[in-house]
Specification:
This protein is of the alpha+beta class. The chain is built from 8 helices and 30 strands. It has a 6-stranded mixed beta sheet with strand order 1-11-12-10-6-9. Strands 14, 15, 17, 18 and 19 form a 5-stranded antiparallel beta sheet that branches. Strands 22, 23, 25, 28 and 30 form a 5-stranded antiparallel beta sheet that branches.
């Protein structure tokens, strides 16, 4: 969804069962200005290339949902006007043109998909806030002339700031199909200062309508210069310096479309890049962003998320890569891309941000290895991410529970592990792997042998149906309450399902205990006083804008290690703000 400030703050729900009087789907909404987002980041407690609407089955694992590729997507359009000056005929033409842009998406003169979207006429009545629920279960594009429909669907006030949103409303879960969806566009705020380009919003939201999620490709080109925005895909989760650039589909958009609805030409004329990412210690590196960038045409880029649709293996697979030579990188997705603006299924961010890893074969002396993509062929590229070094004097010991445990419906499920080592805790992190049909229903907590309980996550908006992440003291500062305890005894992970009907599985979890003579530290505690506060903010502000090799550059402020103290580092700092040892 797109909203004030041009920012995109999108809510995704990928569970296809009815509850509380409503079919749940994927919803995309943007309503906050950048300034509000700035303040939210400072006050908050604690991924890609193309992605999809996914549903995670406890038996078959995560799978993308799409429309039946053997049938056209038949849609109706509201017979009312979009606004007093944007009449119905013009609005219908805009919608048809946006659908045509997706279904006719082509590379090298060949359509990349077999998708067909067919306009089937106008609804039998002008849709209003009073009758909108009568169209539940129909595939329809709705025009909200005064914001009242969006107020009715999203809550009071939303109609004054939301430009549009889309959601899948019905599914055939066994077949992995979307069977109904709706998009709502708000004519009352078109042209309002700070909102994104309306036509770009329509194309973006209809991408969601068809089953596509967000991408992180070419993110660094959103740099304040509108001239650089051209290669950024339509499905990028926030608005650009020049939003009109998002009216046009890029190769990453086409690759995602082809991966869902690929034509024979798509598979024959384009290549694949696939592989896996792992930490140097052997664990899969989940939720990282792999991007291949053409060596002679840097605007030609495709990407993928590690572990995405690979059930926690760290594997990735990107289809739709034009033949040619590329440079391949693996990078972390900044933590501001979460929840409504999430990329991929992993929420919150899987690990603290790591520095970008450029693919280099073990025997290659240069700074990168050329990756060649060939038509109709797969190229394998694997990444190893260096483990973050432990503070001096500390040792990490992992205690695991790897047996799947079904979660009780509308009840609490407790699973335990025994630690026999009588070691003093200097730090704790917790890895949790949960699949559930409606992840927002869950509260997860950890209880130590002493009986102390810390809530890891509760009832938050995730962008998928997985929690597959490591909770560290930087993400959950309350974990520091375990410091000083004796680790020996029974540790308990409790998952509370707050609502009936949806089910899931606790697939695995483990506790990593730090012990020894050292101490842990906060990455944004620049003055070393054990807390991240405004004193650290002023230090960071003085360093903002510095680049490696230039005046004033200090690597401790370059939190993502990319050689520049910029907004990516600011968002990392904002995530840490308020934390203390």
């Amino acid at each position: 969804m797109w909203g004030e400030g041009g920012g995109v703050v999108e809510a995704q729900h990928a569970a296809p069962l009815q509850r509380r009087g409503r079919v749940r789907g994927v919803s995309h909404v943007s309503r906050f200005t950048f300034h509000v987002l700035f303040l939210l980041l400072l006050s908050a407690a604690p991924a890609s290339a193309y992605t999809f609407l996914i549903v995670d089955s406890t038996t078959t694992g995560p799978a993308p949902f799409r429309w039946d590729p053997g049938r056209p997507v038949d849609y109706l359009v509201d017979r009312g006007d979009l606004s007093p000056t944007f009449k119905n005929a013009d609005a219908v033409q805009l919608i048809q043109g946006a659908f045509d842009r997706w279904q006719n998406g082509a590379w090298g003169g060949q359509r990349v998909s077999d998708l067909s979207a067919q306009y089937r006429g106008l609804t039998n009545a002008d849709i209003t806030k009073d009758n909108v629920q009568q169209f539940e279960g129909q595939t329809v594009v709705i025009f909200d002339v005064d914001g009242s429909i969006i107020n009715a669907l999203l809550g009071r006030g939303a109609g004054g700031e939301v430009l549009g949103f889309s959601e899948a409303t019905q599914f055939d879960e066994p077949k992995g199909l979307i069977t109904a969806a709706r998009a709502v566009f708000n004519g009352s705020v078109i042209g309002k200062p700070g909102l994104g380009d309306f036509e770009a919003t329509v194309v973006h939201e209809l991408g969601h309508f068809l089953g596509l999620g967000h991408t992180y490709v070419a993110h660094e080109l959103k740099n304040g210069d509108p001239a650089d925005d051209g290669p950024i895909p339509t499905m990028y989760p926030t608005s650009l310096d020049d939003d009109t650039q998002m009216r046009t589909l890029e190769i990453d958009d086409l690759a995602g479309l082809g991966a869902l609805y690929g034509s024979p030409a798509f598979r024959q004329m384009l290549g694949r890049v696939e592989g896996a990412a792992s930490w140097s210690g052997g664990l899969p590196a989940l939720g990282g962003h792999v991007e291949v960038r053409h060596l002679s045409d840097p605007g030609l880029r495709v990407g993928a998320i590690t572990g995405y649709l690979q059930d926690g293996t760290g594997g990735y697979r990107m289809a739709g890569v034009p033949p040619g030579d590329y440079r391949a990188t693996l990078e972390a997705i900044p933590s501001q891309f979460r929840a409504e603006s999430g990329i991929g299924p992993y929420e919150p961010p899987v690990r603290d941000l790591f520095s970008t890893v450029t693919y280099r074969a073990p025997s290659e002396p240069s700074d990168f290895t050329r990756v060649s993509a060939s038509a109709g062929q797969a190229t394998t590229v694997n990444f190893t991410v260096p483990e973050e070094p432990l503070p001096a004097g500390l040792t990490a010991t992992r205690f695991s529970r790897l047996n799947p445990v079904p979660l009780k419906d509308a009840d609490a499920t407790a699973d335990t592990l025994m630690v026999s080592s009588a070691i003093q805790v200097k730090g704790v992190s917790v890895f949790v792997d949960v699949a559930h049909q409606y992840i927002q229903d869950l509260k997860i907590s950890l209880t130590s042998p002493s009986g102390l309980t810390v809530i890891l996550v509760q009832y938050v908006g995730f962008s998928g149906n997985l929690i597959e992440t490591t909770f560290t003291q930087q993400k959950v500062p309350e974990l520091s309450r375990f410091v000083g305890e004796n680790a020996a005894g029974t540790w308990t992970l409790t998952v509370v399902d707050s609502e009936p009907e949806d089910v899931g599985t606790l697939r695995r979890w483990w506790v990593t205990v730090l012990s020894g003579s050292g101490t842990t530290a906060l990455r944004s505690d620049f003055n070393g006083d054990g807390k991240v506060d405004f004193d650290d903010f002023f230090l960071f502000a003085d360093a903002f804008g510095a680049k490696r090799g230039g005046s004033g550059y200090d690597p401790k402020f370059d939190l993502d290690g990319d050689g520049a103290v910029d907004f990516d580092d600011f968002f990392m700092f904002a995530e840490d703000f308020g934390k203390r040892l």
